[in-house]
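Predict the 3D structure for this chain.
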Amino acid sequence: MEDKIIAKASEMFLNLGFKSVTMDDIAKELSISKKTLYKYFGNKHDLVATTTTLLHQSCFLEIQNITKQGFNPIEENFEIKKMFKEMFQNASSSPVYQLKKYYPKVHEKIMQKERLLFSECLQKNMKKGIEEGYYRKDVNIELVTKFYFSLVFSIHENTVENYKIPKLEQEVLAYHTRAIATEKGVLELEKQLKNNQI
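Done. Predicted structure below.
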């Protein structure tokens, strides 16, 4: 039952928003009593914390799967961006924006994990890109990682309308890639932009 609650709550939170979905709504959707719901989760905050942690883990596993598929580093970044777009395409408004506004403690905990895990992924991507000649050898990997994530997190934390995010993310990804790419990398970027028009 706990897994069913988490799955349904995750779906509802993403599609309808963390604030608007109540414990009553979740119980009703699952055709269970609120008493049953509270048996597994003491309050809505606990449920939000659990669902966001599991969503974060799911995203990270998907990213790991993408990195194992043999894409070149620039193509890999576009595949990861596509995965996020598909995962959150039905969200009414930015989940990260809502989380920051209504559940700041949960948001901060998730962001700490994200910065650690996704920074590691991006640094691996840049090292791979340098080795394969897509990125310049003089790139300051640590600094570029901080710049990139500052821009990406800024979009998610400050954009209410979820439909605007994919276009903004693509602009940031193109900006990031151009800043570190070799001539070979720029050609691959242009190819990816053409194939992933929004």
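The chain has ten helices and no strands.
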